[in-house]
Amino acid sequence: MRRRVTHFAIGLFAVACATSGGPGGGAVRSVPLGVDDRIVVRSYADVFSVSASQRFVFALTTGGLITYDRTFGRWQPISARSEEELQLVRIDRARPPIMRADVIDDAVWIGTNGALLRYRPQLDQVQRFTVPGQVSALRLGRDGAYVNASGQWFSVSRGGFVAPIAGGIGGVALAFDPDLEAVYQAHPSLRGQLEFLLRDAAAGTAGGGVFARVIAGTYSPDRTGEIWIGTLGDGLWNVDVNFLQATPLRYGVLEDAIGALGVTADGVVSAGQGTRRGAGISVVHRDLQLFKWITSATASPLDGARATALATRGSNVWVATDRGVVRVRLGESAAFTQWSAIHGLPTDQALSVVAVDDGAWVGTSRGLVFIHDSSSNAAVRGHVTPAGFSGEPVRTLLRVRDQLLVGTHRGLFALPATAIGAAPQSSAPQRLLGGNAIFVRPVHAAAWSDSALLLVTDRRAHLLSLDRTLQVTNDSTAASASDSVFSEFDLQTIGPVHAAAIDARALWIIGRSGVLTRSRVNGATRVLRVGVDLPANVTAIALADRWAWIGTDQGLVRVKRATDGGLP
470: how many CB neighbours lie within 10 A of its CB? Predict the structure, then answer.
């Protein structure tokens, strides 16, 4: 019987080098993104200060400031530029800033160490006023703010004039800014019952396992029955005292440190790096208005687990982690199921995952397995079948039409079509042939779209054009290939590569220190750099039509895509 092999019909695709011009394109450009092109979304689950104006509700969290438009019922995005100017990306929980909402012009004042900040969300404008020392008290009046720093009171007008006040503020007419104690005084029945009200409401949401402690609160200046509550672990809540109804207004992701991303029909799913308790997955809508935190009502198998890859299929989300594989079944009642070494995996270290209708392929640091998961009962844990590559790290898995491509340190392989979505057969994986040494180099990342395979080896990235079947009956065609017809480009500017993505318009490759984009439409090449365009080391990438989602160690970044698929 003739041996069947997988073959690439190799096509030319000129790609520029990272440091100089290349065939068909110019040099890689590193141009800072515009104000509206990038939004960073972090974890805002811990809300320790809440204040409301006529239009906005401001919540101060360990992730920074978030703003809810109570008039129109939507979140007000803060641009990356304003976030940097606020300098509230990392807030000291032991010594948090003081915040007051201004009911006169819907701004918010924030007192920090050595500065008083005023943010106007309608203009996305930040003003900064220097004061001597840590702000210990902040009050608002008709003419502006009154701040105490290092034992001295100062008046700060809305126009920016700062002046010391010799006799204190005893005779100044001050605005009333209700805090949590004022809420309890206005509504004594809430004292001791508010957390239970929030817990009952949280239990009715999908994966409502985060029962959080109330630590901050206020009421609206025009409606004392409209309460805004800040919690430790479950974000901002709106409480209607008259009807005793509590509504979660979650914003952001559960965990700052992003481990893996997956695209959904209307957004992205993220899993973290196991840096917080109550870990789960976050579902983020593309317009940054709807956020779901899927957690476990009991101990989560994702607690302390670093996500390395993520795949979605129907209502299932499969997360590969350094503590095995976790299937999260979405719906009215989220269910978490874990497979680890004690359940049949060759090791707890899962590196890659591909979801199919009746289970998932999982690449581990010691081989490939197939997890059978055809039961509709979420409590049933399917069995695990070894599928080859014993003892080898399987870092990359791709489903390409009816085949599974497997990337290892020995190169790129393919499993026969009969193994996809069913119990693995006895047929051994086939090595991809192309008459080129590229297929025997260690594979670091790979991505697939239409007829194009983006393959990143230990040396370079290669863009290959595939034929329709991927299969031939002999090696004659493959033997005619040569090194010169492969499109390659250097990746030195972005550091060691660990993930890639591609669609019909562009390719995106991520390294620890940056992201390289290359348009398939016109060849334009751009680089995003950590510290300039991105807040921290890059960990994951997912592409959608209008946006690119980039995971980092300090949040999820939504980047606008140009019409050619690259960057604006």
Answer: 21
